[in-house]
């Protein structure tokens, strides 16, 4: 089992999608027979397969594999575990790639809830989560929207059902927890923390704009 797993990772790193997926799927099939004895290991193989799918551009397959891993982690190590947080982060990235913005944002909120309070907190994954949140809020990469203000307005303010969940105020409590965690561990004064603070500030400003646009001035003022 472990040999198939390792071979799959080697083929992935070599860019051989077919062999990588085949080896990892064989490893998963073998480990799955012992799921009751090693559910976390099965989840980790699902993660490896999901990462492989996403790396080769198969976002839908990655969503399925990350979802399987996430459910196993949820059951056996809980939603506060870094393993769960990493898996739901991968799910968010996969959902974004498949164009499911609302689902991607839901998963991102769960990932940030874990990342903000972990003992091994680091600015880099925090920045990546916050940057993705802004990207999901805007609807697509700024480069693809261009500088046309009318087009930008239409992209940001589309009112389809998926977009209703992409509300940045859902992140505020987790951002506050993350910044407090960084400060407590003495990680708030280096350059990496600086980019996190910049992105957090951007999100807070966008949140105020959104709340005021929705008529929630009291909550906006509190930020």
TrEMBL record:
InterPro entries linked: TPR-like_helical_dom_sf, TPR_rpt
Protein name: Kinesin light chain
Species per Swiss-Prot/TrEMBL record: Noctiluca scintillans (Sea sparkle)
